[in-house]
Amino acid sequence: MTSHTVNPAEPAVLVLEDGTRFEGRAYGARGTTLGEVVFATGMSGYQETLTDPSYAGQIVLQTAPHIGNTGMNREDQESSRIWVAGYIVRDPARRVSNWRSEETLDDALVREGIVGISGIDTRALTRRTRDTGSMRGGIFSGDAATSDAEEQLRQVTAAPEMAGQNLSATVSVSEPVVITATTERIGNVAVIDLGIKQSTVDNLAALGFDVHVLPQSASFEDISSTSPDAVFYSNGPGDPSASDEQVAVLRQVLDARIPYFGICFGNQLFGRALGLDTYKLTFGHRGINQPVIDKATGRVEITAHNHGFAVAAPLEGEFDSPHGYGRVEVSHVGLNDQVVEGLRALDIPAFSVQYHPEAAAGPHDAHYLFSRFRELVIANKKGAN
């Protein structure tokens, strides 16, 4: 067992499933929280991270040491609430200094019941996570901070692992929602909400779509009832191998030759619909500074990521879809570790990327993908006439 200790004014402890302990200061709400400990490398955009539904079930570690100086506001929310299971920072801002701030980060965490810890060696924790892979962990503060160490570890090891979890139902809308196009209308897009972010909806509406946001349990008949000119699968948390129902519906979409665009979780489910396998990454990609190459143009983009799973596919050349959808190619590749970051079907109107082109906190290198989707839909409509 490894132990890292500071002299906190109000104690908190982070316990990893391998027994490693980091003692620090209570931050946010007091109590106990359990989840998969993952690190995010962005130096800004912490509010977008906290309110991204893809982080449901995860305790997020910020590698940037100073967090909270711009506060929180309603305008930058990616959803209606904070979704992270817990929060780890090195040095919380002592005061907010931004004209757009409406409350402090600490107050927001307390208000929404998010248990956090500060004052620990986040660099050592990040290095340990990179060496051993993402692990289950628990943050204990308030009365729980002084509970028995063996009992704390028992709670951590009894928590479910991320692999095998289907979390879409916890983050999806329960009823359909329609957002009308904010520019010249080109048609309807049916969005399967697996944990969608508000900026994604805004971008789709700005393309000229009436956006029909449907629950994750939507059937192909539900999709068809929107008279869709396209279908979109969003980002979201959980293991793609545990989402058989959404994959089956997506195969019906592909069979009907409805134009399809998927991001993040939607990329993984597209891969599965094509007949490819997915796997869990050692520590995942999370942050707004991930280099990806677009193989069609040779252009390197700095992109926003949040995923712990990936699609297994040949990086070079074309290959046949095992499920009979014709030729497929890997369109984008991550340059840090050669992970598949995009798929493009060559014989049906469908493509996907593993990262987040809406990137509300930046960068915006990949924003062109929304225009590519719009062009695909317009070309498909012309071909049908």
From TrEMBL:
EC number(s) from the headed UniProt entry: 6.3.5.5
Residue span(s) of domain Carbamoyl-phosphate synthase small subunit N-terminal: 10-140
Keywords, comma-separated and alphabetical: Amino-acid biosynthesis, Arginine biosynthesis, ATP-binding, Glutamine amidotransferase, Ligase, Nucleotide-binding, Pyrimidine biosynthesis
Sequence segments annotated as region (CPSase): 1-185
InterPro entries reported in the protein's UniProt record: Anth_synth/Amidotransfase, CarbamoylP_synth_ssu, CarbamoylP_synth_ssu_N, CarbP_synth_ssu_N_sf, Class_I_gatase-like, CPSase_GATase1, GATASE
Source organism, top-level taxon: Bacteria
UniProt catalytic activity: L-glutamine + H2O = L-glutamate + NH4(+); hydrogencarbonate + L-glutamine + 2 ATP + H2O = carbamoyl phosphate + L-glutamate + 2 ADP + phosphate + 2 H(+)
Gene3D superfamilies (UniProt xref): 3.40.50.880, Carbamoyl-phosphate synthase small subunit, N-terminal domain
Coiled coil: none
Entry-linked NCBIfam families: CPSaseIIsmall, PRK12838.1
HAMAP family per the UniProt record, alphabetical: CPSase_S_chain
Functional description taken from the UniProt entry: Small subunit of the glutamine-dependent carbamoyl phosphate synthetase (CPSase). CPSase catalyzes the formation of carbamoyl phosphate from the ammonia moiety of glutamine, carbonate, and phosphate donated by ATP, constituting the first step of 2 biosynthetic pathways, one leading to arginine and/or urea and the other to pyrimidine nucleotides. The small subunit (glutamine amidotransferase) binds and cleaves glutamine to supply the large subunit with the substrate ammonia.
Family: Belongs to the CarA family.
Subunit-level organization: Composed of two chains; the small (or glutamine) chain promotes the hydrolysis of glutamine to ammonia, which is used by the large (or ammonia) chain to synthesize carbamoyl phosphate. Tetramer of heterodimers (alpha,beta)4.
Designated name of the protein: Carbamoyl phosphate synthase small chain
Biological source species: Microbacterium commune
Lineage: Bacteria, Bacillati, Actinomycetota, Actinomycetes, Micrococcales
